[in-house]
Amino acid sequence: MSEHYAALGLKSDATLADIKRAFRQKASQFHPDRNTAEDAPARFREVQEAYDVLSDETKRKAYDDNRRRNLLDDPAQTAREIWTAYFQQVLNRS
């Protein structure tokens, strides 16, 4: 799975304005017309894909949920959230 936040140089709590600003900067940096590096077209596509996902609220939510399930953020925090939710359900049933 691609790491879209890293492609744009952002943290997962970035705002839409942050995402747009980072996209414009990275797209300009890696655009094949401006950058003759061999990997520039691939990096440009990576940045474009990241923006497509993170700028759409529904796609971003799905992506963030998937990241949490895969424990890509903070594994300890994610584990705490999972166990807290589980124990809340167990305690509410009693």
TrEMBL record:
Residue ranges annotated for the J domain, each copy included: 3-67
SMART domains xref list: DnaJ (SM00271)
Annotated signal sequence range: none
Entries under SUPFAM superfamilies matching the protein: Chaperone J-domain
InterPro entries the record matches: DjlA_DnaK_co-chaperone (IPR050817), DnaJ_domain (IPR001623), DnaJ_domain_CS (IPR018253), J_dom_sf (IPR036869)
Cross-referenced PANTHER family: CO-CHAPERONE PROTEIN DJLA
Protein name: Molecular chaperone DnaJ
Lineage: Bacteria, Pseudomonadati, Pseudomonadota, Betaproteobacteria, Burkholderiales
